[in-house]
User: Which sequence fits this backbone?
């Protein structure tokens, strides 16, 4: 008989494409992962992975097993969580895929407060691209997604999470730092630090600036970086100015490492969304977490971080 634990090991190895990485994810040793996979292959009488040095890849049989293993592991978890709910216990492991930097800063506060109410719950927050969030929702690898744009698939349902403001930041010793406000046309004079091509933040910033008479071709771009943290570090070091999430920049602003500058007549906001697979039944823990986010307590907590 196939053990659910073996299927969890198989899924971790398939997702990480590396036995050592799967071992770290499951808090097991690498030999234990190899042993479990070998047992499963012997029991099913198939080879599930092609080994190529440290990397592994699913065989055809492995690909066939993947959705079935996910379904069985998810069903096993739902059985346990449902039986706990019958006893008034909210229990379960909620996996959240986050594509937005502000989501990374909000979620720890929400999860911490939620677990004070429901200590038998566990959370994993994985940072990934917007496309990957949507794909993993559809393949049931994650339970909840955090997105800065609505999902493309009609099977992914989105709900309001919070409103994020993008602010212009400069180094503490930048000439604008003592002014507080500048005119939009002055933005042409700056060196710019932008997010990487494809980032939703970049597209929103460039589209807004273009609406205010500053097309992207007029910007003197010195750097394109892959995270808000990298952009903030570059600005702090004096390499340019950038629009970043106020939530993400909060600590740097409080410490005085960077300054927020008002651009007259220009304000950039975006709506951050929670997302779920409409075709997947929510567990008690997932429902309770969404209820908590929408509750006065949850909204007050979000407001305290966003402000």
Assistant:
């Amino acid at each position: 008989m196939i053990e659910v634990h073996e299927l969890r090991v198989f899924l971790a190895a398939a997702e990480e494409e590396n036995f050592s990485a799967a071992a770290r994810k499951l808090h097991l040793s690498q030999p234990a992962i190899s042993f479990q996979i070998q047992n499963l292959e012997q029991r099913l009488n198939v080879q599930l992975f092609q080994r190529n040095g440290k990397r592994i890849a699913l065989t055809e049989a492995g690909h066939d097993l993947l959705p079935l293993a996910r379904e069985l592991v998810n069903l096993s978890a739902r059985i346990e969580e449902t039986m706990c709910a019958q006893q008034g216990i909210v229990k379960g492991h909620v996996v959240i895929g986050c594509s937005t930097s502000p989501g990374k800063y909000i979620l720890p506060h929400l999860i911490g407060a939620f677990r004070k109410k429901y200590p038998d719950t566990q959370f994993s927050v994985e940072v990934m691209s917007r496309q990957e969030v949507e794909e993993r929702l559809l393949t049931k690898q994650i339970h909840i997604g955090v997105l800065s744009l609505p999902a493309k698939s009609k099977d992914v349902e989105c709900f309001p999470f919070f409103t994020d403001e993008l602010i212009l930041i400069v180094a503490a010793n930048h000439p604008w730092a003592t002014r507080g406000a500048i005119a939009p046309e002055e933005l042409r004079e700056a060196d710019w630090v932008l997010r990487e091509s494809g980032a939703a933040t970049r597209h929103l910033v460039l589209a807004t600036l273009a609406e205010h008479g500053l097309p992207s071709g007029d910007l003197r771009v010195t750097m394109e970086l892959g995270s808000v943290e990298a952009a903030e570090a570059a600005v702090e070091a004096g390499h340019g100015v950038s629009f970043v999430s106020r939530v993400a920049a909060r600590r740097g602003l409080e410490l005085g490492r960077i300054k927020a500058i008002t651009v007259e007549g220009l304000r950039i906001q975006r709506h951050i969304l929670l997302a779920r697979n409409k075709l997947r039944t929510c567990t008690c823990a997932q429902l309770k977490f969404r209820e908590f986010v929408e509750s006065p307590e949850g909204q007050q907590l979000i407001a305290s971080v966003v402000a």
In short: The chain is about 45% helix and 25% strand. The radius of gyration is 23 Å.
